[in-house]
Amino acid sequence: MIEDIIDILNSEPVEEQAFKLTGIRGTGKTVTLTAIERELKEDDKWIIVDLKSNSDISKELVANLYGEVPFLTSFIDANLNLSAFGIGVNIEKKSPVISMDVILKNILNEVQKKNKKVLVVIDEARKTDELVDFIQEFQILIRNELPIYLITAGLYEDIESLENAEGLTFFLRATKYEMKPLNLIVIEDDYEKTLGVSEDIAKELASQTKGYAFAYQAFGKYMWESGEKEISKSVYALVDEALAVKVYDKIWSELRDKEKWYLNFIVKKESMAATELLQLTKTNHSEWSEPRKRLIEKGILDGSERGVVKVRLPRFKEYVEARQK
């Protein structure tokens, strides 16, 4: 995924200028963004700016470019009076520029002259008035063939709410990458080499993670610190605590009561037929339909196999059962 996005960003002519990363908490969205930024920073043609979705994004972008990029600092001081925004020096001979659209166009034209590109990165993106406004402005900028690019990363429901916002058809069409489970064979091989455990233990550890990035880190960390070659109760306890505190408590708090109620039944098995679930809960397909849809969208359930219910999250059974005690 990282290589794919970087190749597209560096392509000539430009193929895509906006990307979306989506997935549940703990699947590696931030790690992926960091890896993309780290690699692009090695190429001096890239100017990378990290912003928050609840900030005045256009203003923050201009302020960052002014403060961090010397040739733009000089350009703005010499050519643009941005005193209305509290940026740069006040050029008395020039009227203050009060349109952020005009400011960004001028700055990006200068970036283009220097054969450079600006990448805006927004982690934990969610629908805010500021982000909606910026995406609409971004669409105008790329129609003018200006060298600005955007990567957003967020939870399924947050990215979806942005996609469905009025006037953001462009964002809906932007390339979207879903954070998929990691390859279990690769995890197994890494555990075996790094931790010095047997192939069987490495395979069991990999299986326990279900390819979930945070669990992969947690099992590796606590196995390494324990120095043990078997998976002990204390390792499981530490992993379960880390998953609960760092990820699952937040996921659970965002679920509706009906979704939590169904999960109490679903976690009893690794895989459960939908018909069995309906028998256990004494409900029907129409009642189950909406909770099922939401649990799949939130990345908790795997809905790839028709008529079968599976939990995607590792050690989630233990988490749910602990809450029932």
Topology (SSEs and partners):
Elements: H1 2-9, E1 18-22, H2 29-41, E2 46-51, H3 57-68, H4 70-79, H5 100-113, E3 117-122, H6 129-143, E4 148-154, H7 156-163, H8 169-173, E5 175-178, H9 184-195, H10 199-209, H11 213-226, H12 233-253, H13 257-266, E6 271-273, H14 274-281, H15 285-297, E7 301-302, E8 308-311, H16 316-324
Parallel strand pairs: 1-4, 1-5, 2-3, 3-4
Antiparallel strand pairs: 6-8, 7-8
Question: How does this model look, in words?
Answer:
The protein has 325 residues and is of the alpha/beta class. It has three domains: 2-178, P-loop containing nucleotide triphosphate hydrolases (Rossmann fold, 3-Layer(aba) Sandwich), CATH 3.40.50; 184-252, no CATH class; 256-324, Winged helix-like DNA-binding domain superfamily/Winged helix DNA-binding domain (Arc Repressor Mutant, subunit A). Helices cover 56% and strands 11% of the residues. It contains 16 helices and eight strands. It has a five-stranded parallel β-sheet with strand order 2-3-4-1-5, sandwiched between helices. Helix 1 (2-9) crosses helix 2, helix 3 packs across helix 4 and helix 9 packs parallel to helix 11. The protein is globular and about 70 Å long. The relative contact order is 0.11. The mean pLDDT is 90. InterPro entries: KAP_P-loop (IPR011646), P-loop_NTPase (IPR027417). Residues 1-124 form the KAP NTPase domain. It comes from Pseudobutyrivibrio ruminis. This is KAP NTPase domain-containing protein.
